[in-house]
Design a protein that fits this description.
Layout (H helix, E strand, L loop, with lengths): L1 H4 L26 H9 L2 H18 L1 H5 L3 H5 L1 H10 L8 H15 L6 H11 L3 E3 L6 H4 L1 H8 L5 E5 L2 H17 L4 E4 L5 H9 L2 E5 H11 L15 E5 L1 H5 L7 E6 L5 H7 L11 E4 L4 E4 L1 H13 L14 H15 L7 E4 L2 E4 L17 H8 L8 E7 L1 H5 L4 E6 L6 H8 L3 E3 L9 E2 L3 E3 L2 H17 L4 E5 L2 H13 L5 E3 L7 H6 L7 E5 L14 H11 L8 H24 L3 E5 L6 H8 L9 E8 L3 H17 L8 E2 L1 H48 L5 E3 L5 E5 L6 H17 L29 E2 L13 E2 L11 H10 L22 H38 L11 H12 L13 H23 L1 H34 L9 H31 L5 H22 L11 H11 L22 H6 L7
Parallel strand pairs: 1-12, 1-13, 2-4, 2-5, 3-4, 5-12, 14-20, 15-20, 16-18, 16-19, 17-18, 19-20
Antiparallel strand pairs: 6-11, 7-8, 9-10, 15-21, 22-23, 24-25
Helix pairs in contact: 3-7, 3-8, 7-10, 7-11, 8-10, 15-17, 15-18, 17-18, 24-25, 27-28, 28-34, 28-35, 29-31, 31-32, 31-33, 31-34, 31-35, 33-34, 34-35
Length: 1083
Amino acid sequence: MAALSALRAPGGGTRVPEPPNAACSTPDGVDVIAWFKKLFGTSHERVVGRLKPKVVAINALEDELKALSDDELRGKTAELREQLDNGATLDDILVPAFAACREAGRRVLNMRHYDVQLIGGMVLHNGSIAEMRTGEGKTLVATLPCYLNALSGKGVHLVTVNDSLARRDSEWMGKLYGFLGMETGVVVNQQGDAEKKRAYQADITYGQNNEFGFDYLRDNMKFSALEYMQRPLHYAIVDEVDSILIDEARTPLIISGQSERSSDKYKVVSEIIPRLRNEEHYTVDEKGHSVTLTDDGVELAQKLLTGVGVLKGANLYDPENLETLHILNQSLRAHTLYKRDVNYIVREGKVMIVDEFTGRILAGRRWSDGLHQAIEAKENVRIQEESRTMATITFQNLFRLYKKLAGMTGTADTEASEFHATYKLDVVMIPTNKTIVRQDFEDVVYKTEKEKFTAVVQDILEHNEAGVPILVGTTSVEKSAAIAKLLGKKGIKHEVLNAKHHENEAFVVAQAGRKGAITVSTNMAGRGTDILLGGNPEMLAKWEFKEHDRIPEAEPEAFEELVQSYTKRCKEEGDEVRELGGLYIIGTERHEARRIDNQLRGRAGRQGDPGQSKFYLSLEDDLMRIFAGDRVKVLMERMGMPDNEPIEHPWVTKSVENAQKKVEERNFDIRKNVLEYDDVMNAQRKTIYELRQQLLAGRYYPDILDDEGKPTGDKRVVKARQAIIDDVSPKIGAFLGMHLEDPVLPHDADGKPRTLGRADFESSAPKKEKKKKKDKDADGETKALATSKTHKLIELDELKRLVYAGDRSGRFPGWGVVYDFTGKATKVAQVYDDLVELVPLALTEQRERILDLQDRIISSMVEESCPQNRPPEDWEWGNVFEGMKETFGIELEDDVAEFGDPEALAQHLFDLAEQSYQEKEKEVGLELILKVFRHIYLEELDRAWVDHLTDMEHLRDGIGLQGYGQRDPKQAYKKEGFNIFVQMVARTSSNVMTKLMTKVEVQRAEEDDEREMRELMRLAERARRAQPRKEDVLPPGAATNAAEATSDMEPLLTAEMECPCGSGKAFSKCHGAEDEEQPGAAP
């Protein structure tokens, strides 16, 4: 007993003697790894060292920029952009750009970037992840690369974890950007299209990660290129990059539509799950997060499902019962693996997902594949109809679309290998501005959760009596509620922050550093908001305004006065808290990811402040129970420790970290598995989306094919057809002439038509003439007369729409190309040149797409029906004749069967198809038939793509069975998925051509005029007959009114009026005469 008591730790815990550290040591005890690091520095230190010379260069410009006026400093933006236009790179102008941004921050925000923040900004600009400790000012750091990269005019996206941070940061840092002449936008949920489009057109756009993803998917479901929200994805900085690119990467973004399948069956199946018992009827693998029916479970499930009338036949695994089996499996997962107030909450009759790492509600997100419906059935809330995927993408493949990607967080190094493997992102640890003095205690482990919570509450009481601010971190909403309940019983005042109280998290977390404050929070709620010792004066002022329904922007002077009053109080209170040891972090459970625990610890000790952290664990915690509990439990039992006495030692902490590493590896495998399957879909999605984008933009960039018909990687150059140039150029001239402020007409003074060319849109220079003698200058010089002419285009937005879509009457169908008129109102000649080059080329490309499509269809038809290895008499001639008729509307002559060479046959069939298309093009008109083609293609493509997504989901559901046949499921999925995709593309191409060549009917303009003429005459006749005749008996008093009405009525058509048909003849001698000659007309 004496030996045991010698191991007692302060506070009643038990310490275990430490063994000598022999790992990586020489016989004399020298740590080899530490020695090498000390000699050469870590990889992070070497990267930082290479960037320091630029920091020196930026500092050297500081005094020079301080001497500039505000306008002169603002003018630096134009200077830097001019340098880029002249060939400089962003790296060339980094030093002056960073220096200008730093000076703007000092003037506008009263915040000067530290040297380490400059290094962080360079790391972000270089496309890496900057790991910066909590409180090091990542929000301010991001302004440096944002400003620099926005100078290129291609847009910068700053991605945040929620809408509130996006709004806050865009408003806060937007002051700096605005001072430098740049626009800032913010994209949030439930935003109008016009507002969102303006936000994406801004130089720097803030927004939540889901919103950027969903907008990308929505853009690729649009039917007009003018409706696109986003520009091409250029550069993104992801704030809290580990949360977005790691934690949320296991769940793909999905846009769904209602499926035809009813969800009523979920309710019926869910009711039988409680009758199944763990271990007997199913087994739960908590490590693998899966549940499996046993043989007894399958037998009982079949009986129960038969009893409720759901099962067809007696075998659950019959093909006709696959849907029922799927719902049963999802319902079993819902009941055993997904816990209320941990994985989700129920609010207002809806199941809402809770992010397991941050505790935040994932608004608008639903589990796919029927899992959400199964949980809704379990919770007895309204079951929404099972959805059908319309568009989907993983976060991995979304952010890999950006040409340059960077990120920042306080904890990324533990996931460095995954960042590099998935995103090709390197992690660089940025040194802190001030030395960290936080004290991190070893973990203490209790046998039971009850004893652990008792110790936590006791620790809170002891520190709270001294006035120490305390932040209690939990892993779930459920654990937060348990702690809050215990504190409530003790009568201890506290704040609770979790997914259920998400709205005011920034206000609550910002005040967690006040003296005596106790804040209970799911571990990462409030992430992105610094905890200031003594309180955050600006947040306190905003909260006071909010409580009194006042708006800071409406009363800036009063708000600033309130902030100043709080600043003084917060500073005094902060000094007191520092004397008490700073913020005390209490972790109530180890998270499965080490970086989440590090994030929680990092809330204390910011910018050199003191702080403490300690984790309380129990063997009943999920992580301990699954991975480390047995070893620790044996150790505690061997030492004869009672339940209420904890063990505290580095061995315990190391054991927990090893368990966390195992979970991190498992989660990485899960994300990797999701990504490997989505990579198959991603290649297909890129192909479809690229095709859609080209169709909507009116462009076509065909691949050059090798002898085997495979793409070489090079693009075929399509040159504009001269016939199209000759046809379109006069139309462009007339079009621009009509839309000038002072129109230029396509005819001369005598009314003769003329073609408008570039010379008609050039601005004329002032003419020089000799004035009369009395007006001559003393030196005899001539004076310039103000006879210059500057053309100006009007309604530029409408011009852009007309060029793309045409007018609403249909008389001008538009050219289907996107041209940006911004800033070109007075550059009419340049606009003419651009359009004369762009429009004929785009029309030629679109026409080429139709011909290439015909070529592929015919080649496939001949290859399939007329193989080289079979004689012509054995070819499937019926398929050829039928295919040409159905697809192209061409009746082949019998002598076609005399062809004996497949290539010659294919060329002959293509010539016929091309001739048929040319006739239709001549009949309909080039612009109109291309417009119809685009519409048909998009309609068919979208329908086929949605069906294909469903097919791929079904393929993935069943692909696991391939393992029983000794086949790699992923390889089978890749191969079969490719075959399904190729078939879908071929089927779509055939459907498009069939509709274009056989279903499109031409409605001639003359026929429209005839119909309009007949309608006009019908109305005229009805108006004539409505006039009272002499023999009609009128009601009393109606005669006068009728006479007045008759005298006021102007006839629609008279005999002398020109006939509206355009013939130039009088109505009585044209259509009027025809009307009189109709049978039944009066002689």
